[in-house]
Amino acid sequence: MPDQSPQESRTPGSALRGPVAGSGEGLSRRTLLGTAGATGIVLGSAGGAIGYAAAPAPPTPLTSIGSERAMFHGKHQSGITEGLQARGHIAAFDLVAGAGRKEATALLRRWSTTAERLMAGEAAAHDDTDVARDAGPSSLTITFGFGHSFFQRTGLEKQRPTALDPLPDFSSDHLDKARSDGDLWVQIGANDPLVAFHALRAVQKDAGGTAHLRWQMNGFNRTPGATAHPMTARNLMGQIDGTGNPKPIDPDFDRRIFVPAPGEPAWMANGSYAVVRRIRMLLDDWEKLSPSVQEQVIGRRKDDGAPLSGGGEATPMDLQKTDSTGAYVVPLNAHARITRPDQSGGAAMLRRPFSYHDGFDADGTPDAGLLFICWQADPLRGFVPVQRKLDRGDALSTFIRHEASGLFAVPGGPAKGEYVGQRLLEG
């Protein structure tokens, strides 16, 4: 798990507030029902408690969590640079036998229509389940990508990027092929669990007879606003995870994360590559370690994420600092040392993960860990060199296991009137 992850706070411009009552802007049917219904329940309860019926009150606006909205159209697809979301689902689909480019085109049209409506806080165009009727957009993002196998299935082999070549084998891999790869990949995130599930169900229903579900995983993060101030998230090991993540304000951010225009191939301009790994944390073993030993494994203090060499969370790590015995303060095999970009040939990737917990094994061992998702302009210069270095001696490797993997080409965002992947499928 390279030491990179976005801040829990939202990046500027990553979401727009929805309309509030009395602002003069129109409310969607879902927003109106949600706010008015919530107000009626609260007032009715209060009135009954003191013996009189409360007078009707004007609708109150959605809370900030419910009203925040990510945009479907744009230079990049949503779900990449936005802050961490409270709930996430990732899934891969395979085209059914006999389905090809024509059927895939129709499916991406359906998925894009559904994504645009749901991200705006509207109901699906057909057969909406009403699961999220009372909610606002809740920062919903729906992101689509193509796997290596998609191009052969659709006769588009000449358009397959070389960057989508299969990842090499790593010594830490214990991969379940049934939960890896896939023709099509979908990432869903929201700050309300019902909104996220509603989107997952809509995407699955839209797949219809064109594609069947290959695998699906569920994740979560801390809800935005749960801490006294914005801070880097913690993972299930209790560590602050992601201090070194590249930030959109960095001058080289776009170059490292997004494929430049005109793109190679052209349809990938402004797109990115997502590496997806299901990393199980061996929590029973990890939690037997003392906090000080855990800090030695990671190379950072557990309480505030500061490097063991001193300072605060954002203080650059001093890799040459030694203690009174001459030993490095940050051990040579510490996870944070190995994953630093300057220790991996400048390799950088934008981590945007979700934690997961899928219950317990028969012996009580928790099946929990990280749905690792990282974004980069080229996996051979991002994920691969870092993971190869981790393979050669990361202290954390004893406490994690890579159980599933996938690599997907995620095209740039659609312009108004376009659907996701149109430049590939109709180019």
TrEMBL record:
Residues 77-221 form the Dyp-type peroxidase N-terminal domain. Residues 232-413 form the Dyp-type peroxidase C-terminal domain. Its main location: other. One of its GO terms (cellular component) is cytosol. InterPro entries: Dimeric_a/b-barrel, Dyp_perox_C, Dyp_perox_N, Dyp_peroxidase, EfeB/EfeN, TAT_signal. Its cofactor is heme b. SUPFAM superfamilies: Dimeric alpha+beta barrel. It is found in: Cell envelope. Residues 1-27, 300-320 are annotated as: Disordered. Residues 1-12 have a biased composition (Polar residues). It catalyses: heme b + 2 H(+) = protoporphyrin IX + Fe(2+). GO terms for molecular function: ferrochelatase activity; heme binding; metal ion binding; peroxidase activity. It is an enzyme of class 1 (oxidoreductase). Binds 1 heme b (iron(II)-protoporphyrin IX) group non-covalently per subunit. Keywords: Heme, Iron, Lyase, Metal-binding, Oxidoreductase, Peroxidase, Signal. Its EC number is 1.11.1.-. One of its GO terms (biological process) is iron import into cell. Belongs to the DyP-type peroxidase family. Involved in the recovery of exogenous heme iron. Extracts iron from heme while preserving the protoporphyrin ring intact. This is Deferrochelatase.
